[in-house]
Amino acid sequence: MADTKETPPSSLPLPTLIPSDHPTLDLLTDNALADHLGVRVAFSGRSGGVSTGAEGAFASLNLGAHVNDDVACVSENRRRLLRAFCDDEEMRLVVPTQVHGTDVVLVEPEAKEEAIARAEEAADAVAVASMVDDVAVLLCFADCVPLIVASPSGAYAVAHAGWRGAYGGIASGTVRTLATADVARGIFSSVEEAAAAYNVYRGPYIHSECFAVGHDVRARFVERFGERCAPDAEHVDLGAALDVDLQRCGVTAERIADAEQCTLCHNGRYFSYRAQNGVCGRHGALALRERPC
Questions:
Q1: Is the separation of the CB atoms in 145 and 103 below 8 Å?
Q2: Short-list 161, 160, 208, 158, CA closest to 178
Q3: According to the model, what pLDDT value does residue 98 have?
Q4: From CA 60, how far away is CA 46, in angstroms rounded?
Q5: What is the rounded CA–CA span in Å between residue 274 and residue 264?
Q6: Res 4 pLDDT > 80
Q7: How is the chain classified by DSSP, letter by letter?
Q8: pLDDT tens, position by position, 184-197
Q9: C-alpha dihedral, 94 to 97 to 98 to 103, nearest 10°
């Protein structure tokens, strides 16, 4: 990726999420972003895979390797997802170990292998930002919020926002990590300028009407993000909290696209930890940059 400013910060098309035309996989993506920048973002559903275990709890495109599904099935499911958008056999798929935290791993050309090893092996990777074009990043979900950030520089980040991560600022932290790297490379003059130019995509997650929480959790969210994120006394709106967090760090409202799908309400289409009593597969958020021929 370039070390000088080549792409005007305002040049990204506004984000949108639409169904892909893949014949078997249920995917949401932004074709305009891919056409403009070569960056592919995608959120997967449950269909089109080979998993059948746990009386159908993993059916069928389970991408999670930590849920007691057959490892060979998970590998094939991940291969199918990657191949839906990339025929490059040298494209490396990085699937980090995920926790409910706020740590962001930055993959840069200068220390790529070390960063990939940290993302894959350490127990603290909840977001991965990539500035290289031979690495695809996949994170897995079942009610938590999938986030993808795209920069005009061609860099991108994928983040996992459970309620602890959302409360702890994983969204703004991911944006700032990517923006700081873009500034260091001369793409933008400030973190604020970079954030205002970024597209943010929010995949399917558990919506407020289904996300009941304790009074202490609700109170913490209201204190940090305002009454907007708590529609009543028993529920929290993670999307609204993330909007506040993102806009506070400079992302504009028009550059946040939401899949507008609740995982619990649409459990037939997406995996839901709550709907399936903790026995379920994982759908994914995938991002990659197509390499020049």
A1: no
A2: 158
A3: 63
A4: 6
A5: 7
A6: no
A7: --SS--S-TT-SPPP--EE---SS--EEE-HHHHHHHSEEEEEE-S-S----TGGGTTTTT---TTSS--HHHHHHHHHHHHHTT---TTPEEE-----SS--EEEE-GGGHHHHHHHHHHSTT-SEEEE--SSEEEEEEESSSEEEEEE-TTS-EEEEEE-HHHHHHTHHHHHHHHHHHHHHHTTS-SSHHHHHHH-EEEE--B--GGG-B--HHHHHHHHHHH-GGG-SSSSB--HHHHHHHHHHHTT--GGGEEE---BTTTTTTTS--TTTTTT----EEEEEEEPPP-
A8: 999 999 999 999 99
A9: -80
Cα Rg of the chain (Å, integer): 18
The dihedral over CA atoms of 1, 187, 115, 238, expressed in degrees to the nearest 10, equals -120
Distance, CA of 146 to CA of 85 (rounded, Å)? 19
Taking the whole predicted model, whether its pTM rises above 0.85 is answered as: yes
Confidence of residue 7 (pLDDT cuts 50, 70, 90): very low
Give dist(CA 20, CA 24) in Å, integer: 10
- What is the rounded distance in angstroms from the CA atom of residue 215 to the CA atom of residue 234? 7
Domains observed in the chain: 18-289 (3.60.140.10)
Q: Which residue, chain included where needed, has tokens 């191949």?
A: 83
Identify whether the C-beta of residue 39 lies closer than 8 Å to the C-beta of residue 19.
no
- 157: closest CA among 144, 143, 185, 176? 176
